[in-house]
TrEMBL record:
Listed name of the protein: Alanine racemase
Keywords on record: Isomerase, Pyridoxal phosphate
Role played: Catalyzes the interconversion of L-alanine and D-alanine. May also act on other amino acids.
Catalytic class of the enzyme: isomerase
Pathway annotation from the record: Amino-acid biosynthesis; D-alanine biosynthesis; D-alanine from L-alanine: step 1/1
Protein's organism: Cohnella endophytica
Length: 387
């Protein structure tokens, strides 16, 4: 591995061929009629939104989803032409801008849609493409009951509205106890009946995120919204069972190596003292890069072995205990594998008491991003990834 990011020995790599493999692997488990909506919010879970969008579409994804209007507009500016669903309600005054960019919007209340109608340009060609969001148990956003639905129906019947989708989101897709998920799914079936009764035609019903789609193929319906699994950011069990690989790896190099003797301290607040004579390496990454202080004690790979972080993580640098002396410049892998050893985002997420994707989205723009593709001869450095 010779490439590094500009002027800095810490860089992330995204293998776009793995993104394509993951799309194909997930698609092969879904009914052919189910749309694959690639979720590329939060800059593609920290992997680079436009690059992931292009790779996912190339591999057969049918459309994209993001959280915010700002994210959708950035993808359009970067030349992404696929359909984009915005999963959080936008400000009503931005509706005409969204229509201009052919964006699909989430309707989570009747009031929002009634107010938004004032911003739909009057020309007969202007259509507001919406996905109606139902809250079947997550308690976040969406229509919760029949009376709210009844209030929404007259607005949905307007000629300028196209109901591209009706959807919900599960609260417990990854839990072993499936009762709550089954209740949510049953509510969604009732909702389908309300919609039929009202005579509203809906292009697609979609309710499953990554884990729901993988665990319960019968819930795939007309579309699935796949985020975490697209990036291979799932637990090891899922990764194995569904042949998913993590696309992101993170690397650095030792910038300083020293021998310390028993009793000497390392780092702020003298938080670590050597219990014997030890080799200590310094790695140029810190909490300003998203390598949070809660990762203290986690391990990195140096020379194919695990090296634990010792002392507190600083803003820009962190120290690790080495199994032996290594030269300055030795490759350090913070996420990814060296030989038989591998550090995954799931392993590190345990320190964060969170999910693997919290780590990938936390990586700061200060870390350069390098794109690899085994189908291309050259690596393409894309310093614009996080603009
Ligand atoms: C983020 C998000 C998804 C993707 O979830 P994953 O678990 O990452 O697959 C799907 N649907 C909604 C509404 C989301 O906000």
């Amino acid at each position: 591995m010779s490439a590094t990011s500009a002027y800095r020995d810490t860089w992330a790599e995204v293998d776009l061929s793995i993104i394509r493999d993951n799309v194909k692997s997930i698609k092969s488990r879904l009914p052919a009629s189910t749309d694959f909506i690639a979720v590329v919010k939060a800059d593609g879970y920290g992997h680079g939104g436009a690059q992931i969008a292009a790779s996912a579409i190339h591999a057969g994804a049918d459309g994209l989803a993001v959280a915010y209007l700002s994210e959708a507009l950035q993808l359009r500016r970067q030349g992404v032409t696929a359909s984009i669903l915005i999963m959080t309600p936008i400000r009503v005054q931005d509706v005409s801008l969204a229509i201009k960019h052919r964006l699909e919007l989430t309707v989570a209340s009747a009031e929002w849609l009634c107010e938004a109608m004032a911003y739909v340009p009057k020309s007969s060609k202007s259509k507001l493409r919406v996905h109606v969001k139902f809250d079947t148990g997550l308690g976040r956003i969406g229509i919760r009951d029949k009376s709210e639905w009844d209030a929404l129906v007259p607005c949905l019947q307007r000629k300028s509205i196209i109901v591209e989708g009706v959807y919900t989101h599960f609260a417990t897709a990854g839990r072993s106890d499936v009762r709550f998920l089954r209740e949510q799914a049953a509510k969604f079936e009732d909702i389908k009946a309300w919609i039929k009764e009202a005579g509203i035609s809906v292009r697609r019903y979609h309710c499953a995120n990554s884990v729901a789609a993988l665990r319960f193929p019968e819930l795939a319906m007309d579309g699935v919204r796949i985020g975490a699994a697209l990036y291979g950011l799932v637990g090891d069990d899922y990764a194995k069972a569904y042949e998913l690989k993590p696309a992101l790896s993170l690397h650095s190099r030792l910038i300083h190596v020293k021998r310390i003797v028993k009793g000497q301290s390392v780092g702020y607040d003298v938080a670590y003292r050597a219990e014997e004579d030890e080799w200590i390496g310094t790695v140029p990454i810190g909490y300003a890069d998203g390598w949070s202080q809660v990762l203290q004690g986690s391990e990195m790979l140096v020379g194919g072995s695990r090296a634990p972080i010792v002392g507190k993580i600083g803003m820009d640098q962190v120290m690790v205990r080495l199994s032996r002396q290594y030269p300055v410049g030795t490759l350090v892998t913070l996420i990814g594998s060296q030989g038989a050893e591998e550090v995954t985002c799931s392993e590190l997420a345990a320190y964060l008491k969170s999910v693997p994707q919290e780590l990938s989205v936390s990586l700061a723009s200060r870390i350069g991003m390098l794109y690899k593709d085994r189908d291309l001869y050259e690596k393409i450095e894309h310093s614009m990834a996080r603009v």
